Amino acid sequence: MLSIGDLSRRTGVKVPTIRYYEQMGLLAAAERSEGNQRRYERGDLERLAFIRHARDLGLDISAIRELISLSEHPNQPCADADRIASDHLKAVREKIEKLKKLEQELARIVSHCDGDHAIEDCYVIRSLSDHGLCDGEH
Amino acid sequence: MLSIGDLSRRTGVKVPTIRYYEQMGLLAAAERSEGNQRRYERGDLERLAFIRHARDLGLDISAIRELISLSEHPNQPCADADRIASDHLKAVREKIEKLKKLEQELARIVSHCDGDHAIEDCYVIRSLSDHGLCDGEH
DNA sequence: TTAAATTCCTCTAGAGACTAGAGCATTTCG
DNA sequence: CGAAATGCTCTAGTCTCTAGAGGAATTTAA
Ligand SMILES: [Zn+2]
Ligand SMILES: [Zn+2]
Ligand SMILES: [Zn+2]
Ligand SMILES: [Zn+2]
């Protein structure tokens, strides 16, 4: 039986975060010691590692909740799990595209300023005041 | 004199957001009508457009607050403004790098699953359970 | 065995950048 | 003049945690 601190050390998930996941319904409510402290076993360790890995890949809590509930029906088809992952991949790609546009615009703005003149002539300030100076939309 | 709704229509910033910016100290507290409604003039329009553009470029409230206070000292050197923009550009680039790693990993995971088998054999679920199947870190 | 050190408990609040809604007041238009 | 549109303040909710208060349980060392 592991304490919440043990679980935390073994998974790299902070103690309050573990309690938060329990509250959000990702982890089943743990058994308790006589003194009301949480006690975990191997299965909880695995599930928390699953959650952690999914979070690291950027999935949100509700997606993880779905994935967990899917994984509890091993004989069902995996189409839903596939869709969740594909949707997330799509969202990540869209985010990258947006950030790339920002990056281009910001790089252009920064390149016009050598940091060595007065604010009133500064291209950084001027281009923030006037989107007309930008190349694209954002 | 413009009402808050006029300002909103002309800048594309929603009314509650304008009030929020005032509360955060980005916009000066507006003059008021006899009936206590906010009244704006041209200068406020320009400042709000500045804020909006900076937000669209991903700068956060505190960076914008700094930029505004810098722009009120037109004769000072622009090194600080330059630094704020460069730091932000750097942060955007780092975010892109992280997302690209996620994208690769997710694309790999999704490509191993055709969505047409049982959950217990599903590569999506298995790779979430085991980071060892991943190519890189995240 | 007992005292000290560590870990644990619950609950509340805060982060960031808004957004939604309640309940009421003012302004505008026909 | 009366209805519709717009405005006001205040509170609470979004999301994923994180920090802290105040107190209880557990572990370690003397
Ligand atoms: Zn400059
Ligand atoms: Zn622009
Ligand atoms: Zn599959
Ligand atoms: Zn991984």
UniProtKB/TrEMBL annotation, chains A, B:
Domain (HTH merR-type): residue spans on this chain: 1-70
Protein's name according to its UniProt entry: MerR family transcriptional regulator
Protein origin, superkingdom: Bacteria
Keyword field contains DNA-binding: yes
GO molecular function: DNA binding; DNA-binding transcription factor activity
Key words of the record: Coiled coil, DNA-binding
CDD domains: HTH_CadR-PbrR-like
Coiled coil (residue ranges): 85-112
Cited InterPro entries: DNA-bd_dom_put_sf, MerR-type_HTH_dom, MerR_fam
Species per Swiss-Prot/TrEMBL record: Neorhizobium alkalisoli
